[in-house]
Specification:
Length: about 650
């Protein structure tokens, strides 16, 4: 019988073999579960008995003790005060005491565990009945003078009986309470013992079921699959693959081995050899990656191994995303992986690969999709070209541009120092002129209106000259930035406060669009408000009376890990002079009467100190359009 079962399982289907192993595991689990159910049901029965009888008896014993104690106190008060009403109230409690004793007696009749307590309850009930009969007669006659001596004797007799019954009630309550507590502790011990026993039983059953299942699995599944694996290894090493031995047609593993052997016979007759394809891949100048649809690397060439500094055995099986630097993963996911999985080609995507020896390697990534006969993606063919040398050249060119910019900045700084020196020298005479003009205006205020008008003109021109000197000092002085986290909403609110008077005078309506999602910008708050105020004042001054000015803010991606803010301000005025557009941000360039020509120059200086830029253009629908862009985090260094 055993040989027949052994042979039947060996030639059976995979489903039969798997179900055999599963049945063994389930049998062990079933045995452990039945044991657990048996012990738990026994404990549940004991707990139910405790809940049904033990707890109610303990509670009732406490209640009858309290009720009897209250009754005796009322009887004593009736005897001392002579009030019949106290005795009547005490008599009323007798019915509740007898009711409780009867209920306790019925509870003990349901189980044999409380025989001693049942007998005690019957005795107490009889004693109490005798006490109550005597007490109800004696205490109701406390006002009868002719029987006072007889009454006192009965009261003394009742006092002795009362003390004995009260002690009996107290002993009963203690006995039942201790019994409940003892039962609870015993159940706790039972629970701990059952838990340890069941845990040990589960471990034993698990080990036995595992060993038996493993033996069956090795014989029925693993050994036959190991033979197929040996066939696959021989084929991969270009060795002869032996035909599998005869087996049952119901055995899927044997059918799989036979099918694989037949496939190897067909592949040997193909016209293009694998060595020929490998030679093509080996002599490619670029790095080749072949990924499966699940992004697992399945083929690389020698150039790839040299590029990444890893062997083929180490690389095969890696995920596509594990080869890319972490900071480039969002960009690679969006521009590389998603298009490829959608069946689109990727051409010259610039990313960085990871390398233990070289750190990060800049490459141009390209990829295309390979389909099978059913038009499904079977592989992703990807090529990477190392652009490290090109990056070095670009870095050198940027270094040259930075050096030129620093030289230009040094020249501007020297001019700024000269300008600041001249402005400071002009401040003192200008202050003296303004003070003297103020004195003259006060002196001729009531005597000569003509002189008063001339003094007003001189004061106005002095103020304009002072404004120009302040703008000149602001432009020539190097800025010291104090970065602070602030949202565009707060920045715009403070800016509107600064230009509230000009906005109100021209009745300008502001149209605000904030798509920055309450992101914090790291900026110098005072300088950024000054720049925005200047642009908004220009927009208000060039807008018609009662016109509209639009302000918008959104976030743009500079790199996958860095964002910049884009703020746009547009008015509906006559627009910018195209001939003067190129010189708009140069110092002393103005198109507005009374302007100093330093406002927009200072705006550009502030924005560039923040690592950004400012541009001006005419909107297609009319009016001037200014755009400010700057990174939302501080630049690595400040411009001089």
């Amino acid at each position: 019988m055993r040989c027949y079962l052994h042979k039947h399982l060996a030639t059976g289907s995979i489903r039969t073999k798997v179900w055999t192993c599963v049945f063994i595991a389930l049998a062990g689990y079933f045995i452990a579960t039945l044991s657990s159910f048996y012990f738990n049901s026994r404990q549940a029965t004991r707990l139910a008995q405790l809940q049904k009888v033990g707890f109610p008896l303990a509670l009732l014993s406490d209640e009858v003790h309290r009720t009897f104690k209250s009754q005796t106190e009322q009887y004593e008060n009736a005897f001392l005060t002579g009030e019949v009403e106290q005795a009547i109230q005490a008599n009323r409690l007798s019915a509740r005491i007898l009711e409780i004793l009867e209920e306790m007696k019925k509870l003990t009749e349901h189980t044999s565990l409380y025989k001693e307590e049942s007998q005690l309850i019957i005795t107490l009930k009889n004693d109490y009945t005798t006490f109550y009969t005597l007490a109800s007669e004696a205490y109701m006659r406390t006002q009868s003078l002719e029987t006072s001596i007889e009454l006192q004797k009965k009261v003394q007799q009742l006092g002795s009986s009362q003390i004995r019954i009260l002690a009996a009630f107290n002993n009963l309550a203690s006995l039942l309470g201790d019994e409940v507590e003892r039962n609870i502790q015993q159940e706790q011990k039972y629970a701990q013992t059952n838990t340890l026993f069941l845990g040990f039983l589960f471990v034993i059953v698990l080990v036995i079921a595992t060993l038996i299942s493993r033996r069956f699995a090795n014989f029925l599944l693993i050994d036959p699959l190991a033979q197929i694996q040996s066939m696959v290894t021989s084929f991969a090493l270009n060795q002869e693959v032996n035909e599998p031995s005869m087996g049952s047609v119901n055995d899927e593993i044997h059918t799989l081995g036979t099918s694989f052997w037949e496939m190897t016979q067909v592949l040997e007759q193909t016209m293009v050899s694998r060595d020929f394809v490998d030679n093509i891949i080996k002599n490619m100048s670029g790095s080749l990656f072949v990924f499966l649809p699940d992004l697992t690397l399945t083929k690389v060439n020698k150039t790839t191994q040299i590029l990444l500094g890893q062997s083929e055995e180490t690389l095969l099986g890696c995920s596509m995303t594990s080869l890319v630097k972490e900071e480039m993963l969002p960009l690679f996911q969006e521009k590389g992986i998603q298009p490829l999985l959608a069946g689109e080609d990727v051409v010259n995507l610039e990313i960085y690969l990871r390398s233990e020896k070289r750190g990060k390697i800049p490459i141009l990534f390209s990829g295309s999709v390979l389909y099978d006969q059913d038009n499904r993606i079977s592989a992703l063919i990807c090529v990477a070209n190392d652009i490290t040398e090109r990056k070095k050249v670009e870095k050198t060119l940027r270094k040259i541009e930075i050096e030129r910019a620093l030289a230009k900045t040094a020249s501007l700084a020297a001019i700024g120092e000269l300008t600041s020196s001249l402005a400071h020298e002009m401040r003192n005479p200008l202050s003296s002129i303004k003070m003297n003009i103020s004195t003259i205006r006060q002196q001729f205020k009531l005597t000569d209106p003509a002189f008063q008008e001339l003094a007003a003109i001189a004061a106005e021109q002095s103020g304009r000259l002072e404004t120009m000197l302040n703008d000149l000092l602001g432009y020539g002085r190097p800025l010291q930035l104090h970065f602070k986290a602030i949202t565009f909403q707060d920045l715009l609110r403070d800016t509107l406060t600064a230009i509230a008077k000009e906005k109100k005078d021209k009745a300008i309506a502001l149209h605000i669009t904030d798509d920055s999602t309450s992101t914090n910008f790291q900026v110098d708050e005072e300088l950024m408000i000054r720049a925005l105020s200047n642009l908004l004042l220009n927009a208000i001054q060039w807008s018609p009376q009662g016109g509209e000015v639009s302000v918008s803010c959104r976030l743009d991606a500079i790199t996958p890990s860095q964002q910049q803010a884009r703020i746009e301000i547009r008015d509906h005025g006559p627009g910018l002079n195209e001939a003067k557009m190129d010189r708009l941000f140069q110092p002393f360039m103005t198109t507005r009467e009374g302007g100093t020509g330093l406002g927009l120059a200072n705006v550009r200086k502030i924005i560039e100190y923040h690592g950004g830029s400012v541009e001006a253009s005419n909107h297609p629908d009319g009016g001037a359009h200014f755009t400010i862009t700057f990174p939302i985090s501080p630049p690595p260094v400040n411009h001089l």
